[in-house]
Amino acid sequence: MKVLWCGALIPYKDDNPAATTPYVTFSIIGINCLVFIYELVYPGGLQKFAFNYGAIPYSIVFLRTVQPISPIVSVFTSMFVHGGFLHIAGNMLYLWIFGDNIEDKIGHFRFIIFYLLCGVVAVYSFAFTDPASTMPMIGASGAIAGVLGAYILLFPRAQVYTIIFLGIFVQIIRLPALIVIGFWAFIQFLNGFFGTVAPTRGGIAWFAHVGGFLFGLLTIKLFMFRVKRGGSWR
Predict the structure, then answer these.
(1) What's the rounded mean pLDDT across residues 77-104?
(2) Can you state the angle between helices 206-219 and 177-194, rounded to 10 degrees?
(3) Residue 88: Cβ within 10 Å count
(4) What pLDDT, on a 0 to 100 scale, did the predictor assign at position 233?
(5) Domain containing 111: what range?
(6) What distance in Å separates the CA atoms of residue 208 and residue 150, rounded to the nearest whole number?
(7) Total number of domains in the chain
(8) CATH (domain of 106)
(9) Which phi and psi (to 5°) does residue 107 adopt?
(10) Could you tell me where the DSSP H helices lie in the chain?
């Protein structure tokens, strides 16, 4: 799973302050950064680390252990492995912008569950497109795509400060999240269903983004229930 941004549009902050401190979002960003630092000094380098701890479609679909860890564990470790500075920087930027509001909306513990489930769905969404592949899939973008799906549903009118590249010209404008995330989602679906890059050749795991996004979009309301004093749900 590669960087989330899509060329001409790069968001860098939103005008949607959270009411609570996003401890989980900060922690996830911190863990990803620490893992990446460890990757830089790992014996064998980033490629070896990615193979050992990324999610290999063949392994996780058929439950065949080909790594130092079990296939199920690799589904989770792959969400914290990145292939380079731009990879992790882009993903953490998106999580920084949009993660705090979703965590604020559903609570810290539920956000942990939501984030991990989005990542799991994203990994398998891609793995089932080519279950025989032995190329490891890495990155947090599938899980973060679920956060984007939740955000576009809950805060479609929130203003997002966005850098727009128009040839040699660069401009900063505010756009509704519906447009920024909607454009991103359109690119993912377009490349996922009509792209020509086979999963076995590497590159961007478009279907991981699509799967994570749809899961977040369709399930976020399930994580927003509250308990009344009388014990009934609302």
Answers:
(1) 96
(2) 130
(3) 22
(4) 44
(5) 9-224
(6) 16
(7) 1
(8) 1.20.1540.10
(9) 95, 160
(10) 23-41, 45-53, 57-62, 71-77, 85-106, 108-127, 141-154, 177-194, 206-219
